[in-house]
């Protein structure tokens, strides 16, 4: 963390906030209006994606305050935990929601009859709830690292940004074989008994320094973050959009406008994953393989903040409601007329 300049952190946070907040507020208005009149699965998913981005933007001022204070957390500890939880949870929620949007678009192009049968809003609501639960369950690790006695950094003035330096020092030892290490819910971690203080460190078969035997699930959990919450969604998106593009350009019945929208969605989704998601998640894998915490890890985390700026590109190509609302937002007269018409309805 010492290598990361606070000026860079603060600049990235401010830029992401100023660019992301207006676009996502506009998207919130557009999708809320559209769902109120005609709820479609794609709009429900995009509304959840917008809410995820806005939650991220809500905690960003706290991260700005931390950066402006020289990366010293002077606010109450519970705000640190809440901020970290929302910060990471919304990042992974966005990747899963983007994947869901991609699958819906693929089904609409490849299987139009099936798509018509799946137009019930309930399906999109259940999918969104599942995504939020999965992300929250994985990112509950932020609360554990902050409050669990064996994992927290006592007397630390820095808010949790993953793991402490000592926790991030990976060795080449195998994980605890007595635990299902890949898919143990992180909320169960405080229930696991740790070794006693008299147990020599060299005999505890640690992977992360100062982690007790039960805490070894943190290491494969990081790998699970990379594979389950990043790589697999990315591969699904790439497959779906390649198939969509092939089908659109091999069948003349599709309009040029639809082809442009799908291409825009594909490029926007790919940009979000390659710029915002993949670099940070690759540090999970590379850090595990190299046996150390990567120095440039935090810079890749900063790239994740641009997610709130790139998502509106996907909104533009995915929803007619957002495209209609965009010129209204730049025309005060039309926006006033629109609001007056809504009040008369």
TrEMBL record:
<feature type="transmembrane region" description="Helical">
    <location>
        <begin position="261"/>
        <end position="282"/>
    </location>
</feature>
<protein>
    <recommendedName>
        <fullName>G-protein coupled receptors family 1 profile domain-containing protein</fullName>
    </recommendedName>
</protein>
<dbReference type="GO" id="GO:0004930">
    <property type="term" value="F:G protein-coupled receptor activity"/>
</dbReference>
<feature type="transmembrane region" description="Helical">
    <location>
        <begin position="12"/>
        <end position="32"/>
    </location>
</feature>
<feature type="domain" description="G-protein coupled receptors family 1 profile">
    <location>
        <begin position="23"/>
        <end position="315"/>
    </location>
</feature>
<dbReference type="InterPro" id="IPR000276">
    <property type="entry name" value="GPCR_Rhodpsn"/>
</dbReference>
<feature type="transmembrane region" description="Helical">
    <location>
        <begin position="225"/>
        <end position="249"/>
    </location>
</feature>
<feature type="transmembrane region" description="Helical">
    <location>
        <begin position="85"/>
        <end position="111"/>
    </location>
</feature>
<feature type="transmembrane region" description="Helical">
    <location>
        <begin position="294"/>
        <end position="317"/>
    </location>
</feature>
<keyword id="KW-1133">Transmembrane helix</keyword>
<dbReference type="GO" id="GO:0005886">
    <property type="term" value="C:plasma membrane"/>
</dbReference>
<feature type="transmembrane region" description="Helical">
    <location>
        <begin position="44"/>
        <end position="65"/>
    </location>
</feature>
<dbReference type="Pfam" id="PF00001">
    <property type="entry name" value="7tm_1"/>
</dbReference>
<keyword id="KW-0812">Transmembrane</keyword>
<dbReference type="GO" id="GO:0071398">
    <property type="term" value="P:cellular response to fatty acid"/>
</dbReference>
<keyword id="KW-0472">Membrane</keyword>
<feature type="transmembrane region" description="Helical">
    <location>
        <begin position="123"/>
        <end position="145"/>
    </location>
</feature>
<dbReference type="InterPro" id="IPR017452">
    <property type="entry name" value="GPCR_Rhodpsn_7TM"/>
</dbReference>
């Amino acid at each position: 963390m010492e290598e990361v300049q606070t000026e860079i952190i603060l600049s990235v946070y401010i830029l992401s906030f100023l660019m992301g907040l207006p676009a996502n507020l506009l998207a919130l208005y557009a999708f809320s209006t559209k769902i109120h009149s005609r709820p479609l699965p794609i709009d429900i998913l995009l509304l959840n994606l917008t809410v995820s981005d806005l939650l991220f933007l809500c905690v960003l001022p706290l991260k700005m305050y931390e950066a402006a204070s020289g990366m010293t957390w002077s606010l109450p500890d519970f705000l640190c935990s809440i901020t970290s939880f929302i910060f990471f949870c919304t990042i992974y929620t966005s990747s899963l929601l983007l994947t869901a949007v991609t699958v819906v678009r693929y089904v609409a192009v490849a299987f139009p009859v099936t798509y018509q049968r799946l137009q019930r809003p309930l399906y999109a609501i259940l999918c969104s709830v599942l995504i939020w639960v999965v992300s929250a369950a994985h990112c509950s690790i932020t609360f554990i690292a902050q409050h669990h006695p064996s994992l927290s950094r006592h007397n630390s003035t820095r808010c949790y940004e993953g793991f402490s330096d000592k926790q991030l020092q990976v060795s080449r030892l195998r994980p605890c074989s007595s635990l299902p290490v890949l898919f143990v819910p992180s909320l169960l971690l405080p229930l696991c008994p740790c070794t006693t203080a008299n147990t020599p460190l060299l005999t505890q078969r640690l992977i992360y320094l100062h982690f007790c035997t039960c805490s070894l699930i943190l290491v494969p959990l990081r790998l699970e973050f990379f594979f389950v919450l990043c790589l697999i969604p990315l591969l699904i998106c790439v497959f779906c959009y390649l198939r969509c593009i092939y089908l659109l350009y091999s069948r003349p019945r599709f309009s040029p406008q639809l082809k442009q929208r799908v291409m825009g969605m594909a490029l926007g989704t790919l940009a979000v994953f390659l710029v915002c998601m993949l670099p940070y998640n690759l540090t999970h894998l590379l850090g595990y393989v190299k046996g150390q915490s990567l120095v440039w890890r935090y810079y890749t985390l900063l790239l994740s903040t641009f997610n709130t700026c790139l998502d509106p590109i996907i909104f533009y190509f995915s929803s007619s409601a957002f495209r209609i609302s965009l010129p209204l937002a730049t025309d005060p007269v039309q926006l006033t007329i629109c609001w007056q018409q809504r009040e008369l309805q």
